[in-house]
Design brief:
Number of helices: 9
Strand content: 15-25%
Largest sheet: 6 strands, mixed
Number of strands: 9
Shape: globular
Distance between the termini: 63 Å
Strand order of the largest sheet: 4-5-6-7-8-9
Length: 287
């Protein structure tokens, strides 16, 4: 409806003219006072058309320099996403991140499937296999449902913890995919190897997940064995992926220099725009 109003404005119509404008499935139809119909396709584009156009634009970026076999695999994944979009299963901001990550994994020798069912309850974003091993990647955009507008950080922490706990049990390796501008807020305990988690940390994670996820609830054994192996920073703008260890990610995300202004001694260093661009200082003896 917003696009229709813009189109009406561009056509120079007044509020009094609105009764002659109608929307249909193919575009904006303008009925003039002489009974002629003008179909103005350029003024409107439905969600499906925009989704397809955005994926086509992204594919031009991704296909540059790819070998034919890899490009065919990526095109098949795009076609699968287009099918799912017609069924209202996927959204564009999520799908473009999946495709960028899929290219990265394909070039590393993985066979990749998108929106893959693990059981009757769980569907993962990327399911990849290579040899006898498998890798699951869950993409996180940081979306907050309106019902959690007053507790976004707690809700996100619980959602991420639940994903790590539930999905990692199906994978030899599990990773979260995230845009560089969004800092993941999962509990620090899950970034550690399981053997280094304390009973108090396990109890905290259990209580956090139980706030929102209790059908079924996560078990202490699942929390103890859960593991996130990698985090993928997915840069859609530049169509590339940076792979980082979870503990290194948490250190990078919490580094004071990332969020604070440059101090006097660091004026020569450009401040990073995102976590993707951040580079830690080499450690050495203090001067």
């Amino acid at each position: 409806m917003f696009r229709a109003c813009l189109c009406i404005q561009r056509l120079g119509l007044s509020i009094a003219d609105l009764y002659i404008v109608t929307l249909n499935d193919t575009g904006l139809k303008l009925n003039d006072d002489r009974g002629r119909n003008s179909l103005l396709r350029v003024c409107t584009m439905d969600g499906r058309g925009r989704f397809e156009q955005d994926l086509s634009t992204l594919m031009l970026r991704l296909a540059a320099g790819m070998e034919k076999e890899a490009e065919i695999k990526l095109n098949n994944l795009r076609d699968w996403l287009l099918k799912l979009q017609k069924e209202n299963v996927v959204k564009i901001n999520h799908s473009v991140m999946e495709l960028v990550c899929a290219k990265y994994l394909i070039l590393k020798g993985y066979d990749v499937q998108l929106e893959y069912g693990l059981n009757e309850l769980l569907t993962c974003d990327l399911y990849s296999t290579k040899g006898y091993g498998n890798l699951i990647v869950e993409v996180e955009t940081g979306f907050i449902p309106p019902e959690h507008a007053l507790n976004p950080l707690t809700y996100l922490s619980a959602r991420l913890a639940s994903k790590i706990i539930r999905y990692s049990s199906f994978a030899g390796k599990f990773a979260l995919g995230v845009p560089p501008h969004y800092v993941l807020s999962f509990p620090n305990a899950l970034a550690k190897p399981p053997r280094r988690r304390t009973p108090a940390e396990l109890e905290y994670v259990k209580k956090l997940c139980d706030l929102y996820y209790h059908n079924p609830p996560v078990t202490e054994e699942e929390i103890l064995n859960a593991r996130i192996h990698e985090i993928y920073l997915i840069d859609v703008d530049r169509a590339r992926v940076l792979e980082i260890d979870p503990e290194a990610y948490m250190k990078r995300a919490l580094h004071k220099e990332f969020f604070s202004s440059l101090n006097d001694e660091d004026k020569t260093r450009p401040k990073p725009a995102t976590l993707f661009d951040f580079q830690e200082k080499p450690e050495g003896p203090a001067k």
